[in-house]
Amino acid sequence: LGTAGAAPGQRPACGGMVATFKIAVLGAQGVGKSAIVRQFLYNEFSEVCVSVALAVPTATSS
Fold this sequence. Notes:
Keywords: Nucleotide-binding. This protein has one domain (1-49). 16% of the residues lie in helices and 0% in strands.
């Protein structure tokens, strides 16, 4: 993402602006959402499964 040659969050050497994006990765539990993001961002893949938990607040009705 952003300009080629620039590290995430840094300006490229040519002085141009780096685009910043936010993405949401949705899917069922255990399908590899974190693995695909890690592979895309860091070019690494691990066979070891590490579960990522996220607490999502729920609305209550009165």
